[in-house]
Amino acid sequence: IPFQIPTGVVTAWCMSYLGRWNALFVNLSLILVCCALSLIKLDLGSGWDVKRVASIVGSKWGTAAVFMIVYLYTNEVMPTSIRSSGLHLCSIFARIGAFIAPYVVNAANDASFFLLNSLFMGLAVVGLVTMWWLPETKDTNLKSTLGGETNKVASNSDQ
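-> structure tokens emitted (159 positions)
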């Protein structure tokens, strides 16, 4: 929990100034770089492996940030008429993924450390590729129907 507090504050700031798309891109890239960093053989000469700790902390930061961004992004991308159904469907798949993840990590880690990090790097690349088609939702009107009508906020001059 203490790690997610600064992650949440920084991620909220990034989303409000950079936008959702850019914040998602930066954090998925952070995960990719941290997983690649953990594969590099680097002897720092001490018993404490700074590279591995930095890789783990960076990956944890990126993963927590991506979860927050995607949770918000899911609500903003879907039209109001199907928003709750879409969020529930995404939640179901997230729970299935959370259930399967420990088994996949255990099996991949038993096979090799390289396979495990390659798996996470591959998933980060898939996330980066699929997010390319997502629209930026910062400062835009949200769709209210599948037809594309938007919710217009009434200003004081309209009243």
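DSSP finds five helices and no strands in the chain.
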